[in-house]
Amino acid sequence: MIAPQNPASARLDQLVRAEPLPAALRRTTIRPGRGSYGPFTHLLLLDHGEIAIEAAESARQIEGPAAAILPPGDSLLLQLGPGCGGWLLGMAPSMWAAAVGVRAESEFLVPIGTQLLIAPGLSQATAPDPFLLAERIGDELSRGAVGAQMAVLACLRLILLDIWRGSDIQPGLVGRGNEIHVLQAFRRLVELHFRSRLGVRDYAGLLGVSYDRLHRICRRNLQRSPLQLVHRRMMREAADWLERSGRSVQQIAHLLGFHDSAEFSHFFKRNSGLSPSAYRQQVRNQSTASRPATTSFADWP
């Protein structure tokens, strides 16, 4: 089984994908969200040709030049017409969070990672050329040079900005200061920093809100404290490593930012009722892994 993707240990090419669209002579079907790419958010850059997109309950036909942001999910289906040209890019959740960021402008980008979004008219005339940016991402992934992640994120941000500007999203309709937007920004920060063991006051400072306001927002909307939400994310990651990898408890503790395995074991047992070793053994004894309820991250907005 594929191990969870952890920026602390995963290679960049496990967190980002960049592939030219196949220029076939006949209609071609691609399922971008298959296998380990299921959680990825994908960017489709179509220079020329036609593509039919099926994502969950949405279906659209686009003609190049155009771009689309494709939400995560294994049901995503692309039907490429003959002779298509362009790029398919993908980002793991942690890279998506890093690319979108948490600044005020980032809140305008929140909807585009959760639904199918089309930007017609995107072309090489856009400065900088998004297709050259995609090519640069592919080159950075293949070379793996120093600073590759910084370069890839810079390219992804520019492409996202172009798609946002070329879409029909109206920034004026997005309310700043909305509690849901604060929660979404908090979630992205947690995705980026949960291994760093930041305190709730640190998160509040990065969000530009007070500790008390962040606490009230989380309690009012999710019936949990900010610290409980951070711990839920840590538990999901810990459970993934215990279920899907052969790493020792000490190694997993280190990956999650704990000082030692004893501290990690105490944390895991307090949140799940089982020690890490007992949890791993339970999973091995079951044909289908049943995780503790505390590992869920799905109730975030």
UniProtKB/TrEMBL annotation:
Chain ranges of the HTH araC/xylS-type domain: 184-282
Superkingdom of the organism of origin: Bacteria
- Region: Disordered; residue ranges are 282-301
- Keyword DNA-binding listed? The answer is yes
Molecular function per GO: DNA-binding transcription factor activity; sequence-specific DNA binding
Q: Which InterPro entries match?
A: Homeodomain-like_sf (IPR009057), HTH_AraC (IPR018060), Tscrpt_reg_AraC-type_HTH (IPR020449)
Q: What name does the UniProt record give this protein?
A: Helix-turn-helix domain-containing protein
Query: Sorted alphabetically, which PANTHER family does this protein's record hold?
Result: ARAC-FAMILY TRANSCRIPTIONAL REGULATOR, TRANSCRIPTIONAL REGULATORY PROTEIN
Q: Which UniProt keywords apply?
A: DNA-binding, Transcription, Transcription regulation
